[in-house]
Structure formats: C-alpha cells, structure tokens
C-alpha cells in the first residue's frame, strides 16, 4: 500500500470544504457536544488519497441515494428517513466465531477512532461520486472476535423494521438487506465501517448509524444500517443476487470490461456535473487496483462478476 | 368546441417540454442532469403513446366522436417527445460518440427495443397528415396499427430498464393491456350491446 503519496491539501477542495484539516479540527470545538463521543484521527491518511477528481457537493451526496428501505426513488431516502431512530443501536458479531459479541454503536465509536477517507463511490447504475467518509477499517471491529477455522465469508445484515423503513412494506428485495464479503476482502485495510461524512455525523439516508464502504466494489455491496455481522462457511447470497442472479454477482468489483447484462459499465456519469459534461471512463477496481488486485489473482473476473 | 379545445390541448401538451427546457436553461436538473432529462422525455413519450391509444376506445365507450380529433395530435406529441428522448441519449449522454451507442443498440435489449419503437413511429409521423390518409386509403389504417406495437415496445423498454420490479412500469403495462383489450372485437361488442339496450 502506498502511504501519503500526496498531502491532503493538494486535493481539489469544494466550497465550504476549503480546508479539511482545519475544518475537522474546528469540528471538535464547534460541535463538540454532538460529536464528543467520536474521536477522529486527523493525522496521516493510510491510503492513496484522491488526487484527480473533485469531491461531490454535500447536497448531492446526501440527497441522491439508493436506499430502497426508504423508497426506490433517489430522493426518497432523504425525505423518508428523517425520523429514523439510530440510538440505541446494537451490532451482533456471531456465526463461526469462538466468542460472539454484541456491541453498541456508542461503544464502537468510543473504542475505535474514526479517520477521514476520501473514496470514489461507483454505483452499478453507472454514476459516481467522491465522498469524504469518516470511518475505521472494518478489520479493527472484526478483530474483536476469533473466527473458527470454518469461517470463510462475512455476511452483513441490515435492519428490518417496516414500521420505520416503509420501503420494506413492499417486496422490492428480500428484506432484510443482506450483503457479503470474503474474509480477506473484509479484512482489507481499504474496507471501512463508516460513522460520518464531510466531517459530520452520518445522515440517516446514508446508512446511519454504521455502514460499510468497500470502495473498489459497486455501491450496493456497501450495506447500510448494519445490525449483524456473521462469519460463515458458505458464500452468502446477497439481496441483489437473490433478486437477479445473472445481473448482480457476489464479487461485484467495479470492472469496465464486464458489462451489466442491460447496460455498459465502461463509462460513468459524475454526480453534480452539468448536463454538458461528458461521461468519464470507469477504472478497473474503481482506481484501487494497486491495493486490491492481488485479492483476485488467478480468478476469472468475467465469471466471478 | 373543437376550435377552443384543440389549441388549449396543444398548449397543455407542450407543458412537459417547457418544464424541461426551463430546468435545462436555469440549471435546475439536480444531481444527474442527463438522467433527469432522459427520464422526463421518456416518461412523457410513453404517456402520449398511451393517450393516443386511448382515443379510439374512449370514442367507442362514450359514443362521442370528438375524441378521434385529438388522436393525431397526441400521436405526434408522442413522436416529438420520443425524438427529444432519443436526442438526449445520443447528444447529451453520449455526446454524439456513436461507437458506444451502436454497441448499446445491438447488445442491450432495452435500448434495442426503445430504438425500434422510435423507428416504428417514423412512418406514422410521416403519414399522419390528411393528404396521406387520402392517398393511402385502406393501407393507412394498416400502417397505423403499428401504434399497438409501439405501445408494447415502449412499455417493454421501461420494464427492461428497471432494476427490479417497480410499480410504475407495471402501471403503464396495465393501462396498455386495458387499452389493447378494449379494441378486441368481443369487448367492443359488449359495449355496443349495452348502448342499444
């Protein structure tokens, strides 16, 4: 992995986001009460930072979301998640482990500091954003349990609560939302659990209180509002695999060479650009190939899409 | 009546165009402008196709001939919005870069059928004026039966592009099936019978 190739100040900033570092430090003082429980590392970044693309405006990252639990339209999650209750919230880590545990989000935030990660986010539908997440490597959470020798995969389950999540009253997907990763993917330092974005607490429509981000995979792999992490022996069947197995595979790595059965994945639209801006070329593993390509050595990525 | 109604309806039919033109000019299109324009023009194409297909059944059911007077205009608006939809895809989305477009048309079934629907609208638009009706006589009716196929293609285009089973494409499908069923002879017969008694 490359460390600190560029200073964060070299990243093209966006409006209010003029000086990230200062901004984040200020956060601790200005909104100290709201954020007191969450310690943020503002020092070294431990990944290749974004140097080519602009950060997506906050407005779009928080109003243009795919989160079918709150409705199938992009603007639904923002509208319908306003009263979603995220406190208290427990996450159970169980399955093929020697010591299953249940942790509250508060505990997790208190014991594992969040850092900022500016990642590209590529949706399987063919659009993309660049989002400054706050979060921590998932492996820090997974290391709290000891997997048994049987454990090969990690299965993520999101909340099922049709009273609050009115999209779940319709059988759009087989609720609750399920996703999965191979253990080495889950342990990879780029895979993070997200607690916030743009220096703020994670909005409900973005998957509060705790969501996954796997930047080299299509967005739907990054499950939101997670309540259970299960170590399993067999490859989990995700909700999207269940809905349409020939369109959504288990791996779902960003790959411009393997097109979706119904549309091409060679290019993508950048969210927040105007109508006259062209599509941009999609990059293998969403640009994180140096870090993650090794995970798939010898695998046919056309077959394992 | 017709003299007042027709221009009014013409202006009403232009409203979706005025809305999207305003949004383009004043940058009101949101996070994904191209998609917004594509969806807007596409949805209105489908609505006008279904509206134009609704006129004949409405005439049969209500026994009011006037419905037929609007059929051509609604059909031409379907072609108008369909052409804007196609131009959005070619011009805004792919910036007239024809390689990926040809690739899409040939390989992606929802784009193929959408393009086919537009192609089928061409002869209907060309033969839509009164002169053509007189020249083509009986054949005019046959050619314009293509509108049923266009309706089916357009609804399939919408269903196939959807990520999962959504309500919207299904609603359009139900409306289309209803409109086509109303044209079946035995259904017409029922309505005729009712009106006699």
Report a brief summary of the structure.
The complex is a heterodimer of chains A (305) and B (197). Chain A is an alpha+beta fold. Chain A has helices at 20-30, 32-35, 58-61, 76-80, 105-111, 138-142, 183-187, 239-243, 289-292, and strands at 40-41, 90-95, 101-104, 114-122, 127-137, 153-158, 178-182, 192-197, 200-201, 211-213, 226-232, 267-270, 280-281.
Written account of the structure:
The complex is a heterodimer of chains A (305) and B (197). Chain A is built from 9 helices and 13 strands. In chain A, the strands form 2 sheets. In chain A, strands 1, 4, 5, 8, 9, 10, 12 and 13 form an 8-stranded mixed β-sheet that branches. Chain A has a 5-stranded mixed β-sheet with strand order 3-2-11-6-7. In chain A, β4 and β5 form a beta hairpin. In chain A, 16% of the residues lie in helices and 22% in strands. With 197 residues, chain B is mainly alpha-helical. Chain B has one domain. The longest helix of chain B is centred in the N-terminal third of the chain and has 30 residues. The chains are: A alpha+beta (305), B mainly alpha (197). At the A-B interface, loops of A face α2, α4 and α5 of B.
